[in-house]
Amino acid sequence: MTRSVYVTGIDRGDGRQVVELGVMELLTRQVDRVGVFRPLVHHSPDRLFELLRARYRLSQDPATVYGMDYHEASALQAERGTDELVSTLVDRFHAVARDYDVVLVLGTDYADTQLPDELSLNARLANEFGASVISVVGGRKQTTESVLAETRNAYRAYENLGCDVLAMVANRVARADRDEIARQLESRLPVPCYVVPDEPALSAPTLAQIAQTLDAKVLLGDDSGLARDALDFVFGGAMLPNFLTALTPGCLVVTPGDRADLVVGSLAAHSAGTPPIAGLLLTLDERPGDEILTLAARLAPGTPVLSVPGYSFPTAEQLFSLEGKLNAATPRKAETALGLFERYVDTGELLGRVSAPSSDRVTPMMFEHKLLEQARSNLRRIVLPEGTEPRVLHAAEVLLRRGVCELTLLGPVDQIRKRAADLGIDLGDTQLIDPATSELRDSFAQKYAELRAHKGVTVELAYDVVSDVNYFGTLMVQEGLADGMVSGSVHSTAATIRPAFEIIKTRPDAGIVSSVFFMCLADKVLVYGDCAVNPDPNAEQLADIAIQSAATAEGFGVEPRIAMLSYSTGTSGSGADVDKVREATELVRRRRPDLSVEGPIQYDAAVEPSVAATKLPESEVAGQATVLIFPDLNTGNNTYKAVQRSAGAIAVGPVLQGLRKPVNDLSRGALVQDIVTTVAITAIQSQPPRPVPPRPRPVPPREGRRPVSSSRVLVLNSGSSSVKYQLLDMRDSSRLAMGLVERIGEQVSRLKHTPLAGGGGSREWTGPIADHDAALKAVAAELAKDGLGLGSPELAAIGHRVVHGGKHFTEPTVVDDAVLAEIERLIPVAPLHNPANLTGIRTAQALRPDLPQVAVFDTAFHTTMPESAARYAIDVETADRHRIRRYGFHGTSHAYVSRATAKLLGKAPEEVNVIVLHLGNGASASAVRGGKCVDTSMGLTPLEGLVMGTRSGDLDPAVIFHLARVGDMSIAEIDTLLNKKSGLIGLCGDNDMREIRRRIDEGDERAQLAFDIYIHRLKKYIGAYYAVLGRVDAIAFTAGVGENAAPVREAAVAGLEQLGLAVDAELNAVRGDEPRLISPAGARVAVAVVPTDEELEIATQTYALVGRTDMRDRGVGND
Q: I need a labelling partner for 617 at 20 to 30 A (CA). Which of 287, 404, 556, 801 fits?
């Protein structure tokens, strides 16, 4: 049975076309055959259907879209009654529905229909069609209370009439009221309620619509100018200086045609971007002289100048009655509408409720939808060097309106703004950079000179080179200021990708840079490689291209089944060309035995099952290949173009692969949609892989990879000048060895190694250790002396502590280039830690490239915090753009200690609420409810929260402004002050709690004050987390101070007896290495000391990810 969705409302003016367009977008993502049916129409062709037909390439006969017109419906109802009207419409609906998997039904519009009780008619039609209802309520110029009441009433009305209501949409509400309305509706109705704010650009008429409605003459302007929205009307009557101050962005200037001063002044302001206007409308049938119009055309090319015969007042009345419409002639409004829908409607939830049948076919449109959706799931910043090119600007507008990614445009800023204004494009707060004047030019020149010093490049020469937009953009990507780059619409391929070869270079696991095209056929997507870069690859390079292409395919949802193409299939042919493909196929099998690959194989045997059944009946690939690797550029390039032109396929690409960071090249004939798609692909390429849940799973085998039955895990904690390490056997969580390398890079470095299995004391070594590579080799040598070397087959993986994983790394993750890139991208929010963590990972990769490297993130445990705890109360868009939120740190410690505390109490983690106090030189608190973190004291960085050894903790942000203004301190100086010279050391000169307690015993007032401030802040957080948790079962002290400083524990709970907190003096004084209770017997709330074990936690999570057994059940966890 066909699934149908009926979009309707309760009155006119609800702007439901936004919802209808959005629902169509959702349906075409998942379903191949989507039909449209409008039961009643005023006149045909219907403008919305024409938009849907053009945008979604619908093949439906327009004559089948409409049930009947309103005049016929009114007459039929009057003569034969409502039952006859409904019966006729149901018959016509089913005549359409049988040809489609899903039908989108567009309800009646309540506009001069002469039909009684239109709401009941819509409800009855929905029921008779077997359609689920999405009801839209208009909120424009309505109060919050009115919107809430109408939405509830509309839901009850449709539900009481027997409708299956999928969701409610309150549309066009005041932007300032949107969040409050959404909050209240969430708890008042049993179905999802989406609240969409009013968007002026949607209701604004275009200049073309104004010209048509007023029957105006177009004196100047082109199609692009006439497509602009008139966001405001400014009527000219004042003298020029006063008039200019009244101009607003996107306004239509209305003035008598004899006011040449206002005409020239308005266009001059537009040309300067102060502000850009939509156009001019001249009244009184007066027109300026030819010399004025010539000047106007040069001042603002393309900007419309219209002329009407009427007076200004009646013209104004007509203008104010106009409202913008979504139709095929306003594609920019459609992009705005979709961007609005996708931002404020939970599209995944709604699509799930629709339960549309998922198609086995993948049409070009479905593939394009998926690209945009995947890019939006994790916003990246893409740099576009060709910022003044009109196609690039139009593409940027689409990308911004759809929320696909963040953008940086390069070029002379004034020229970019002027060109955008001429095109009527609003770039908003998009980052615009002129490489010639940018403050980054000096540092980029220095960087490029270092990279190319072996080629004799000096800083002076580099200074000139980096002013080129492609070199500048590539350096932005390399330095983490952008995630990827797209260029080539006006530059050659060489000019686009040469900087990437010189600066970004190839990935360690890629021998060459190659490319693929996504070939979108009528019913599937194939991947062709390499059709653009390598003229005649040898067998080694061809194998590399195949492996890279498989990875690219998998990253975009195409299951890789590789066909190594040749003019011969199987063993039927011989010769140098066939032998090359045969050798390449064997190389792929040896390097990646997990991949399905066949070769040599002919194209027809690769893709046509009937041919495959004859030529290679036993092959897993033949007849169903998805990744087709061509033996040379001549074959590949001609084939992709032949399929594109002859089979009507859409070719998306070339997509470059093999670079450390993504850079992609456009065809110089690229259309706007081509640019949009390529940017989306580039954004996806730069995304980290989606975190894998920590469930037992084998790592895909590679050449030389150790079996996952190995039981040892090496844990590395890499600092800027140190490496801490432990080797554990995960069969029983025992430690085999541990050690520390410190003062790396200095003349006198120190390595201390302690074997813990089989006896033997610690060994120390001093001497120069130049870098982390030398340090890890020294560690490997020490381990080898104990028979525990890095080459041992017992070593299953290396687990790395990584301080900052941002919002998206919620679990431990196997490291690859995309993961490394994301960790590097997070350096601005963890500048002291992430660079060192990266160095450790890359060094370990170089020493053991065959071994899984797993990143375990300090921030991951805290990703379960609700948005109310994770968000700062600042502008949401600014926060999202700069990834400002509360991430929290010490997560591995908080995770371990909260579980260990539950075990100490004899309960499962899910049954216990714990406040964990990790008190070391760095200190943090967390509120853990049922094993999940719901709040923590550290925020965007480790600076927030408790008083620490050298960090201030919580601080009024205005202190920073005050120090900058009054103290004349730079940002760097303030950063150093708050992170390194504050906290305990700033208060009393010491950050060692033992020394502070000694000074207190001697009567030192500064030490006493520092201690009091430290405890005061600690108590505030304990009390706050009581309020957050509601019920507290235990407080756990951990880390250096928490485990060893009895006076701190005693003072922290002193005076909190009303909360059930107390410590037993004798128990508190006892020191030990095991978890223990220090609260009196029978205490309402347990107070515990739980030694943290971050290394064991990292090893446990690492082994759970790459091993066969989740070892958390063997150690601390649910016994």
A: 556
The SS3 call for residue 285 is coil
Contacts of 83 (CB under 8 A, 6+ apart): none
Distance of CA 345 to the CA centre of its chain: 17
pLDDT at 1117: 34
Q: Whole-number mean pLDDT of the chain?
A: 86
Q: Any idea what the Cα angle at residue 338 is, between residues 336 and 340, rounded to 5°?
A: 70
Say what the pLDDT of residue 689 is. 60
CB 221 within 8 A of CB 234: no
- Structure tokens given for 326: 């979504």
Give yes or no for a contact between 257 and 282, defined as CB atoms under 8 angstroms apart.
yes
Query: Among 395, 267, 416, 413, which Cα is nearest to 332's?
Result: 395
Buried b (16+ CB within 10 A) or exposed e, 900-926: bbbbbbeeebeebbbbbbbbbbbbbbb
> Is the CB of residue 933 less than 8 Å from the CB of residue 926?
yes
Q: pLDDT category, 1119, cuts 50, 70, 90?
A: very low
With cut-offs at 50, 70 and 90, classify the pLDDT of residue 693. very low
100 Cβ partners below 8 Å, 6+ apart?
Answer: 2, 33, 34, 35, 60
DSSP annotation of 629 reads E
3-state per-residue secondary structure call for 1020-1068: HHHHHHHHHHCCCCEEEEEHHHHHHCHHHHHHHHCCCHHHCCCCCHHHH
- What is the set of domains in the chain, with CATH numbers? 3-198+334-355 (3.40.50.300), 207-322 (3.40.1390.20), 378-504 (3.40.50.10950), 506-658 (3.40.50.10750), 712-857 (3.30.420.40), 885-1096 (3.30.420.40)
Cβ–Cβ < 8 Å for 495, 465: no
How far, in Å, CA of 158 to CA of 167, rounded?
A: 11
CA angle 884, 888, 893 (to 5 degrees): 160
Comparing CA positions, the residue from 1118, 1112, 1102 lying closest to residue 710 is: 1102
Tokens of 1064: 């037993």
Give me the pLDDT at residue 760, please: 66
**Cα(549)–Cα(630) distance, integer angstroms:** 11
pTM, two decimal places: 0.57
CB 185 within 8 A of CB 151: yes
Check residue 292 and report its DSSP letter: H
Give the tens place of pLDDT for each residue, 321-363.
888 877 777 788 888 888 889 889 988 888 878 865 555 556 6
**Is the torsion defined by CA of 145, 148, 152, 157 positive or negative?**
positive
Catalytic status, residue 732: no
Helix (H) / strand (E) containing 655 = strand 650-657
For tokens 């219907």, name the residue. 46
What is the C-alpha to C-alpha distance for residues 837 and 716, in angstroms, rounded to an integer? Answer: 9
Pairing of strands 525-529, 627-629: parallel
Q: How are beta strands 305-307 and 279-283 bridged, if at all?
A: parallel
Choose the catalytic residue: 32, 858, 935, 1033: 858
Q: Cα separation of 35 and 1033, whole Å? A: 58
pLDDT in tens, 888-936: 988 989 999 999 999 999 898 999 999 999 998 889 999 999 999 999 9
What amino acid occupies position 1080? P
Distance CA(72)–CA(33), nearest Å, equals: 29
